[in-house]
TrEMBL record:
One of its GO terms (molecular function) is thiosulfate-cyanide sulfurtransferase activity. Pfam families: Rhodanese. Keywords: Transferase. Residues 40-130 form the Rhodanese domain. This is Rhodanese-like domain-containing protein. Signal peptide: none annotated. Gene3D superfamilies: Rhodanese-like domain.
Length: 136
């Protein structure tokens, strides 16, 4: 009798590879976002989709606050059509980033969800910023 782990057989390697490649097309993680910013390779726009009040309390360095309800075709036209957006919210208990990614996709834009959100960022020990950045 197999263990609960082996009771359902694992996928064949080619099927598993396709599954995980597809999954990574939809998401990234805190470590990759942090590494990209640290290396100066921010080839994406990082969007904090929480409320302005929560953003002012604490947010990821380099993030722009844009709640998913404010993502309109007009607002998003500020960026090139081929811009990659990375969205995050409070953490795994919040679906705001999912709603934002859906809204962006419906607007014809590319988006990845940063899994873990604020909770994941804190778990990694990465620094936060406070306040609202002043426009240049």
């Amino acid at each position: 009798m197999p263990s609960p782990v082996a009771e359902i057989p694992a996928a064949e390697p080619d099927i598993a590879a396709a599954h995980y490649a597809a999954k990574l097309a939809f998401e990234t993680d805190c470590s990759d976002v942090h590494a990209a910013f640290a290396a100066g390779k921010s080839d994406f726009v990082l969007l904090d989709v929480r409320s302005p009040a929560l953003f002012a309390q604490s947010h990821l360095p380099g993030a722009i606050n844009l709640p998913h309800g404010k993502m309109t075709a007009h607002r998003m036209s500020e960026w090139a059509r081929d811009t990659l957006f990375v969205v995050y919210c409070a953490g795994p208990h919040c679906n705001g980033a999912d709603k934002a990614a859906l809204r962006l996709a419906k607007l014809g834009l590319k988006a990845k969800l940063m899994i873990g959100g604020m909770t994941g960022w804190a778990d990694e020990g990465f620094a936060f910023e406070q306040g609202v950045p002043v426009a240049a």
